[in-house]
Amino acid sequence: xxxxxxxxxxxxxxxxxxxxxxxARAQSWPxxxxxxxxxxxxxxxxxLLARALAQYLGETLGQQVVVDNRSGAGGNIGGAAVxxxxxxxxxxxxxxxxxxxxxxxxxxxLPFDPERAFAPVVLIAxxxxxxxxxxxxxxxxxxxxxxxxxxxxxxxxxxxPGNGTLGHITALLLEKELGISLTSVPYRGTADVxxxxxxxxxxxAMDFLPSYVPLxxxxxxxxxxxxxxxxxxxxxxxxxxxxxxxxxxxxxAWYALAAPTGTPAEIVDRLNxxxxxxxxxxxxxxxxxxxxxxxxxxxxxxxxxFIAAELRKWGPVVRNANIVM
Length: 325
Hints:
Elements: H1 2-18, H2 21-28, E1 34-38, H3 45-61, E2 65-69, H4 76-84, E3 91-95, H5 97-106, H6 114-117, E4 118-133, H7 142-151, E5 157-160, H8 166-178, E6 183-186, H9 190-199, E7 204-208, H10 213-217, E8 222-226, E9 252-260, H11 265-280, H12 282-290, E10 294-295, H13 300-321
Parallel strand pairs: 1-2, 1-3, 5-6, 5-7
Antiparallel strand pairs: 3-9, 4-7, 4-8, 4-9, 4-10
Helix pairs in contact: 3-11, 3-12, 5-13, 8-13, 11-12
């Protein structure tokens, strides 16, 4: 009798010891370096923000956070690496609209479903796109551009930094919302768009703002509008598309952290809290100001809702344009 009781007690203690193990692991996290996968090449604005955040997280969490650039396939290579990773908090994605949302709409053979593969952590920041015009185009603002486009349907060319990129689908959304017809010209990146708008080969550019700030200030291009709901502090005199008389129009680049699905909530919450603190810190504000980005922050649930809204917005645009890769 005593032996049976002892065995039951021992089994009960053993089972009880197993139950809190995940929580114990989460509480001890991180006990080694964390890898922050950046699905684009080094040196761009996205990479610079990832590195600024990684340094801050490393200081806050007490372990090094290493940025690992895995570029290619519109962010899908890096996204797939995180989707396959163990959900232990040691592999995190520094994501953008492509791998976290829009690539699901565009790539026919995407190796992961971002809504299922990732646990949202936090929406870090947004960045405007700019509608820029060649100085040779006789328009000063969006309203004049709309009038010109309606007088010459399909004659205005708009350079975008790649087929299926955010610049491309934003140009399509602009056409839809403004009731105009433009001819999109996909390039292999921003540098080629800039070269051709300066050379007069295209009339307009729909692209990420930072590369156009110095050009607009020097008068080499004319910034007609920014696409976010708020003006950019870098070009404070340039109105938003909404202010130009098209309420509800908004498109932005955005940057977020995500973890493999199944990552313990305690780890997600620690990453979320540390990132929100970064955004409110002097280091965070300086980093975002240098990159023409606007801080967002918030909860994992708010990030999940935001991504769902982005998919609802861009889904019809992509399907109507039949963009498939």
